[in-house]
Amino acid sequence: MDKKTKMGTPSLMIRREAIKSINGFDETLPRHQDWDLLIRLFEIGKIKVLPEHLWIWYEHEKPGVQIVMEAKNKYLKKHKRRIEKFTRKEKNNIYQNHFLALSYLLLKERGYRKALFYLKKSINHIPPLPKLNSISKLFLGFFEGLFNKKLRYKFR
User: Fold this and answer.
1) pLDDT confidence of residue 124
2) pLDDT higher for 9 or 98?
3) Report field, pTM of the whole predicted structure over 0.70
4) 54 vs 3, 13, 50, 134, CA distance in Å?
5) pLDDT on residue 156
6) For residues 69 and 108, is the Cβ–Cβ distance under 8 A?
7) Cα separations (Å) of 103 from 51, 60, 106, 115?
8) Which end of the chain, N or C, is more open, meaning fewer C-beta atoms within 10 Å of its C-beta?
9) What HEC string does 4-20 produce?
10) What is the Cα–Cα distance from 45 to 66, expressed in whole angstroms?
């Protein structure tokens, strides 16, 4: 559920029985069906990650802001009970990433007032003594959306 995890259903090998036991994909979600599937799979078992890359990630055109906002809000509402089981740091990371993504998309659509609203919500989920790294990533993401241009940066 964080930005570092690039895992979609094409990269998973899951037993059919496991998928059937959780009733497959939730087709009512407009986005994040893979994440939803993974969360429900984690409740019944474990996942093993292979150390080598066996697939290539391609970016594709993203849907409009309204669809993404609806999807993220529905996703967070659906999994609120599950998210509450995480540590405070993990919960903050989940909400920070989701709200920052909304802020970024709204900036690209020139929805500045709502973008600032979601940026503020994202900032509210930064730990009390955040690392400079976290703040830098947050603001660079915001400015990327504002200028609609990918900024080059490297963090350790």
Assistant:
1) 82
2) 98
3) no
4) 20, 12, 9, 29
5) 42
6) no
7) 33, 19, 5, 4
8) C
9) CCCCCHHHCCCCHHHHH
10) 34
